[in-house]
UniProtKB/TrEMBL annotation:
Pfam families: CMD. The keyword Flavoprotein does not apply. This is Alkyl hydroperoxide reductase AhpD. Belongs to the AhpD family. It comes from the Bacteria. PANTHER family: ALKYL HYDROPEROXIDE REDUCTASE AHPD (PTHR33930:SF7). Disulfide bonds join C131-C134.
Length: 180
């Protein structure tokens, strides 16, 4: 399993990350599709080759073709929107909010999965991307769609653990040329 291989690749100083990674599939509020879509979208958003190479094959097995595509679409679109809306927010000039965004997001009309799953993946990727506006927008859509806070927080936990694992694995490669 991908998560076991990732746990084995983590160095001893990252034991808490290993434990956190191990608990992602054991103690979760997420459905199988929500979990693996979140794992895939966040792995892609992390930009970590070692992480994505482990997660992607398992996610492909666990997800339907539509869900696989939707999770990757969420990662791609949020890579764009997180930068755009985070920058608008940081500029703190309300005049920018009056300008049209001009971003192509046709995939949002029909993502191929339940709207709440797509929103959940977008929220998790926005957590990785650090965009407060996107986080607020997706969290609001999820809550309006009836999703419980515990489920939303679980997706954020997945994003946090995967981001830390990606950073640690990439540091090991930079320092030693290989993972532990």
């Amino acid at each position: 399993m991908a998560l076991d291989a990732l746990r084995a690749a983590l160095p001893p100083h990252a034991k808490d990350l290993s434990l956190g990674l191990g608990s992602l599939t054991n103690h979760t509020e997420l459905t199988e599709q929500q979990l693996w879509g979140t794992l895939l979208a966040c792995a892609e958003a992390s930009r970590s080759g070692p992480l994505l190479r482990e997660v992607e094959p398992e996610a492909r097995k666990a997800l339907s073709e539509d869900a696989y595509r939707a999770a990757r679409t969420a990662a791609a679109l949020m890579a764009m929107t997180n930068v755009f809306y985070r920058t608008r927010h940081l500029l703190a000039d309300p005049e920018y909010d009056a300008l049209p965004a001009g971003l192509r997001m046709n995939a949002l009309r029909s993502p191929g999965v339940a709207r709440t799953d797509f929103e959940l993946w977008s929220l998790a990727v926005s957590a990785v991307g650090g965009c407060g506006r996107c986080l607020q927008s997706h969290e609001r859509a999820l809550r309006e769609g009836g999703m419980r806070r515990e489920v939303i927080q679980e997706a954020i936990r997945v994003a946090a653990v995967l981001t830390a694992v990606a950073s640690t694995l990439d540091a090991e490669i930079a320092l030693h040329g290989v993972t532990a």
